Amino acid sequence: MAIQWYPGHMNKAKKAIAERIKSVDMVIEVLDARLPASSANPLLAKLAADKPKLKILNKQDLADPERTVLWLTDYRAQPHTNVLALDASEKQAASKIIAACRSLVPNRHGLDRPLRVLICGIPNVGKSTLINGMLGKRSAKTGNEPGITKAEQRLILADDFWLYDTPGMLWPKIIVEEAGYNLAASGAVGRNALDEETVALELLDYLRRHYLSLLQLRYQADLSESPHWRDDNWLEWIGKKRGALLSGGRIDYQKAAERVLTDFRDGLIGRITLETPNQWAVWLKKGQMQ
Ligand code: GDP
């Protein structure tokens, strides 16, 4: 699969994150609730193995609520892990996060110093929105500690709560094929990484198998004639329905693919989650066998 890879950035970020992790009490990992496992970075799991973790399933307003419960249960079973499902724009987001952090690291061996938290997430998961929400009216007070660059801000949310933004970019790491497609569908990997028609066809294939009624409702497809539409039938139908046409009435597949992807990203097809803990386990196993 032709995913673009950025080893240079990756190594720099890895070093900086590894360095910062040493001096924090805990780590917040922001995930996309529609693709929790695909939007996680296994590198972070390794680097922060011995730190308490708060996982935030962000964009829960776009995710399938039943599947969010499955992920919450799955993560809660992990040691030293707390988990929250959130919509970054909700008013209580910041106070929920701060409370969850405090409960995860309730007493730091009597140490009289602020709780220091590193927040990480791959691009587009909503990390900035969450940070801005946590800052609220407080202006971003950045630290003057040596070694803290502009790219790695220390935000003082309360006298006893310091939040460090990740130094550098935490790029997604694609460990199974499905994760690549899910990341592309969510918009987390750049437009050029994967061809949009392929991504849309993969998405339609998943939706057809798991969210058929939502698909049917959104695009008003009459399935009575052929209940087993193939994915390209769907793309063709959507092209027709959504006016993605070329001269002579031919379908503009590229445009139809873009429409499907924007509809998904904007939540217009419905609340959808592209993976469950069980599905992810199967994909991982399959990936390891190849
Ligand atoms: P970052 O790259 O992780 O810092 O992501 P941003 O904070 O810039 O958010 C990326 C996009 O997702 C923006 O368009 C946000 O408005 C949107 N976004 C962030 N959080 C949420 C959320 O909880 N729900 C929804 N629907 N959109 C969100």
UniProtKB/TrEMBL annotation:
Keyword annotations of the record: Cytoplasm, GTP-binding, Nucleotide-binding
GO MF annotations in UniProt: GTP binding; GTPase activity
Positions bound to GTP: 58-61, 124-129, 168
BP-aspect Gene Ontology terms: translation
UniProt cross-references to SUPFAM superfamilies, sorted A to Z: P-loop containing nucleoside triphosphate hydrolases (SSF52540)
Record keyword Nucleotide-binding present: yes
InterPro entries: G_CP_dom, GTP-bd, GTP-bd_ortho_bundle_sf, GTP-bd_ribosome_bgen, GTPase_MTG1, P-loop_NTPase
Gene3D superfamilies membership: 1.10.1580.10, P-loop containing nucleotide triphosphate hydrolases (3.40.50.300)
Localization of this protein: Cytoplasm
Main localization category: cytoplasm
One of the record's GO cellular component terms: cytoplasm
Entry keyword Nucleotide-binding: yes
Domain of life: Bacteria
Domain CP-type G: 10-172
Family indicated by similarity: Belongs to the TRAFAC class YlqF/YawG GTPase family. MTG1 subfamily.
Function, in words: Required for a late step of 50S ribosomal subunit assembly. Has GTPase activity.
Protein name: Ribosome biogenesis GTPase A
Organism field: Snodgrassella alvi
Record lineage: Bacteria, Pseudomonadati, Pseudomonadota, Betaproteobacteria, Neisseriales
